[in-house]
Amino acid sequence: MNPDHTHEVHCRSWVPGSTTHADFPLQNLPLGVLDESGGRIVVAIGDYALDVQAALHLQCLDDLACHEQHALHAHNLNDWMALDAHARRRIRHALFALLEHGNSAAQHGDRLLLDPRKHRMALPAHIGDYTDFYSGIHHAMKAGVLFRPDNPLLPNYKYLPIAYHGRASSIKVSGEPVCRPHGQVHTDEGPRLQPSARMDFELELAMWAGPGNALGDAIPLERAHEHIAGYGLFNDWSARDIQAWEYRPLGPFQGKNFASTVSPWIITADALVPFRRSAMARPADHPALMDYLNNERDQAQGGLDIQLEVSISTSTMRDRGLPACRLAQSHTSHLYWTPAQMLAQHTLGGCNLRPGDLMASGTISTPDHTGDGSLLEMTAGGVAPITLPSGEQRAFLHDGDEITLTAYCERPGGYRIGFGECRGRIICAAGRP
Amino acid sequence: MNPDHTHEVHCRSWVPGSTTHADFPLQNLPLGVLDESGGRIVVAIGDYALDVQAALHLQCLDDLACHEQHALHAHNLNDWMALDAHARRRIRHALFALLEHGNSAAQHGDRLLLDPRKHRMALPAHIGDYTDFYSGIHHAMKAGVLFRPDNPLLPNYKYLPIAYHGRASSIKVSGEPVCRPHGQVHTDEGPRLQPSARMDFELELAMWAGPGNALGDAIPLERAHEHIAGYGLFNDWSARDIQAWEYRPLGPFQGKNFASTVSPWIITADALVPFRRSAMARPADHPALMDYLNNERDQAQGGLDIQLEVSISTSTMRDRGLPACRLAQSHTSHLYWTPAQMLAQHTLGGCNLRPGDLMASGTISTPDHTGDGSLLEMTAGGVAPITLPSGEQRAFLHDGDEITLTAYCERPGGYRIGFGECRGRIICAAGRP
User: Fold this and answer.
1) Active-site residues of B: which are they?
2) Cα gap A160→A91, rounded to integer Å
């Protein structure tokens, strides 16, 4: 099979709704897990979800090797992530063939296809460890200005991808409510315990680790891309008042660990191959990349061409039948570091990544204010509230506010690779101390 | 059964070597997991390890409820940790009865007892998330002086237990080698990639989470002690030069995530009941505890009376047949926050703890230099190397250096609760970028 076949624009599927303008055309084929029977692997296609287990039972995927089929029988995608890049690509090709127009599997459509609106999605994988990077340079700059007006970017920023470890247990899949946390905040009268009054979102790209490395073995930059199985969207909810009081000297903790939201569909690295782009151009006064972060191929095509959006819907807007309102439009070209550079840095000291580990990019903002990836930036730290079409003002999030992150790749005359939604609604923190 | 029976000094076991002066007398009964058959639960007793699965097969633990027996059949201790505090206590009583002098199980000694020297220990549990606190106030002060001479303790320190999330994947059990990490360090000529030249240890108490909480539900202070299943020792290896360059603004990452070492035996919370003590007295000029961190019972007996030690053995010392040399003696009374306060703080914002999550206390140092919990403190940041009995000097750790943490509780005329060892040897970082 021509390995580029799965990226051809003219290819069509027999599944209804899978046109090239939809989020999930034949060229996308993101994987997810239904929250039933302990977890069931599905593939988004058009308006439907392919039941992979049914496809295995119907022997539609018999060309796959035994261990590849086995990985798809699992209750989550960790075994799929543990496969090497070649095996994941063979699975993509097999799914593509199965769903391509003309395949005899179409006659089993009623057994193979599920209506995703009738099912809940689960987390796509068991997340061993979660790491949050800080690679959106405009966010780092704009958020840094609020804390350190004279020195927004710390000296290390341009030398290495900065990151910290986050909480894996509290990562929930899109659609789960987000409970406003209680915590200590600093006031003019001293620290006080209260529900956070400065709840914020952060627009981030999620990166799912592939096979990973043994403890002590670094993954060099030129192999790093093989170890990212796929991508998604990540909302790194932040309680700015809790974070501001707690974060020195050891970094964010309870300002973040009350909840994070990840999108349910894993957009495979293979689906994004046509949407690779060059890494961010480094201005002349920025330091040269060190050798271990410098690779011609990664500089030429290690970046990603993904459009990002954030929208908000308040309870008032929903009561009045108003649609969600777009807050920001950003793009992955604003990442200072490529995914491969982030992963190479992560393993540089020998830290082991395991299949299903989740990395997030850090907030991705544009240089101007049209693409602020957080309210912190949009409202200049809360002092300049924004006004929504409903007339409501927001400095930070109110209970009932729902934030939805979306993303897509598209070229004129081409097809669209949609990411689906990463959605969460703030609910009131009930009855804590 | 008298619930205090398991703490009586005169009680004796039929197992050889289990005298009250040994680390593992009948009153201790720590749980661990052998690294074989996928993991096998054992209990340390004297010079032996009780094979719990054998005890179940021999129907020596038939008084336990079915789900309690089931938890002991598992390949790790996560199911045991998930039990409520009453069930864990019933298991303790059953094990105590089984191993007490006069029990008929003694006749099956050869089937029940294993020689731990012939077996490797595994990690006692699957660690979902790992959190590192900063509750050793003298360490926070002494390390803080090195970074911020005028302002060693940041303003938040006395108001809440500070913590950050660490890396779970790279936590290894005692005895595993520790690979010196490569990383970026800052030099007078700018940042450089090299193996860390400032490798350090950190003496910490490990706390293993019990049943935990659902996301969004805080565990109040008065229930927090039920959610700590047991304790151990933790070496939070640190690459000070990597850490110093990377840690702002988001905290430690690669300065820590290359490896951590935990001791294999879980000293149960029940075994430590007689060694509870009052919380650290708060000086008059320290702020009063907020209500959610203030509980009469916790202040009276939420602390722990554990002696801590660090020793070093270099390859030169081993070559010359010299014994390991003690570097520090410290004590858990130097923790500014009790374990219950740390756990209550951790869940305050609704962050969910899961059975097997690991919390570490932060480095526990004495106010003076006899009990420095790290070389950073002992050598004033590396400028005043210490001299070992072999004549060797150490500012930071060399390849081949082995650090061992030990701990015990003991009262005059009483018995000893030993923690076993938390041991790791630095090995050379091979062939990275």
Assistant:
1) 139
2) 34
